Amino acid sequence: MKLTRTGAVLGYAAMILVGLVVVLPLLWMVIMSVSSTRDLTTLPLHWIPRQLDFSRYHRLLSLAANSDGQTFLFALRNTVEVAIGTTVVSFALALPASWLFARREGRLDKLLMLVVATYMLPPLLFVVPLYHIFSSLSLLNSPLALMIADSTVVLPFTTWLLKGGIDAIPAELEQAAAIDGASLWRIWLAVTLPLARPIISTTILFSVLMVWDEFLYAMIFTSDSSAQTITVAIADLASGRVSDYGLLAAAGILAALPAVIIGACLQRALVAGLTTGGVKG
Fold first, then answer.
1. How big is the CA angle at 190 (ends 156 and 97), to the nearest 5 degrees?
2. Which of these, 10, 48, 225, 259, has the minimum number of CB atoms within 10 Å of its CB?
3. Where are the domains of the chain?
4. pLDDT tens by residue, the chain, 281 residues
């Protein structure tokens, strides 16, 4: 398909506009994080800092007792723990469920619709029952409680996304392996999972990001730094009467770095996973 000159110009203009909308706020966060408080509070605003100030990064990466850095790093550790735990639990349940939905299509459609419907419900609906359950089991203010709570959102999404990827894998390949005498586990390990690697990588990325950015459950089910996640820790930095906006920007950048690194590592698999099933041959 050949684009006209006008179409090409409009397309590039749209791409540049989208790039500016995405990049400029990130660039401003970086500038804020290394600007002095004076540059951020004086009018007119200094868009370019007169002197670079990296003290906020040192403050957030310090493990001094009762410091902002200790709270921030503990929250980062908790977030990694919750993200990994939630992703592992969700995948352990979603992989067999998504395969069954894909291979028994038509028989389990209503159940699949129910699974997807739970993902569409606002998480606020689950707060009260989950709170009572965690309170009765003495799980409040623990990473385990957040793993269970986040799984109520991640698991339906993971099942739905994996099901779409497995749909694109011809069932005849599995049937051929079964005729050759391979067991179900052997078929999974040798046929299904290798072919589903792109969609699995994509699902892992989205699952981790969903947990990484989750705020509602982390705010309600935790009360101190022993279980707080990064989103709550950043919110606490902004809870004072006078907020250090540069510190908030530095915290946001540090919190985003792990997700950016994971996304960069899985970029090729992400593109392949998102296009899986788009073309059937």
1. 20
2. 48
3. 1-53, 63-275
4. 566 778 778 888 888 888 888 888 888 888 888 888 887 877 777 788 888 888 889 989 888 887 888 889 999 999 999 999 999 999 889 998 888 888 876 667 777 788 778 778 888 888 999 999 999 999 999 999 999 999 988 999 899 888 888 888 888 888 888 888 888 888 888 888 888 888 888 888 888 889 998 999 999 998 887 888 999 988 888 776 556 888 888 999 999 888 788 777 766 666 655 555 444 44
- Residue 220: what residue type? I
Q: What gap in Å lies between CA 271 and CA 52, rounded to an integer?
A: 37
| Distance (Å, whole) CA 270 – CA 201 | 7
Give the CA dihedral 185, 186, 192, 196, nearest 10 degrees. 80
Whether residue 257 contacts residue 186, with contact meaning beta carbons closer than 8 Å, is answered with no
Q: Which two tokens stand for residue 226?
A: 């022993």
The highest-level CATH class for domain 63-275 is mainly alpha
Paired tokens of 262? 């994971």
Q: At what angle do helices 197-212 and 143-167 cross, to 10 degrees?
A: 150
Nearest to 232 by CA among 217, 248, 219, 214: 219
The SS3 assignment for 244 reads coil
Cα distances (angstroms) measured from residue 167 to each of 172, 174, 175: 12, 12, 14
Degrees, nearest 5: CA angle 122-214-40: 120
Helix (H, G, I), strand (E, B) or coil at 184: helix
User: 37 is written with which tokens?
Assistant: 């408080």
Q: Which of 232, 65, 222, 74 is nearest to 140 (CA)?
A: 222
pTM exceeding the 0.85 threshold for the entire prediction: no
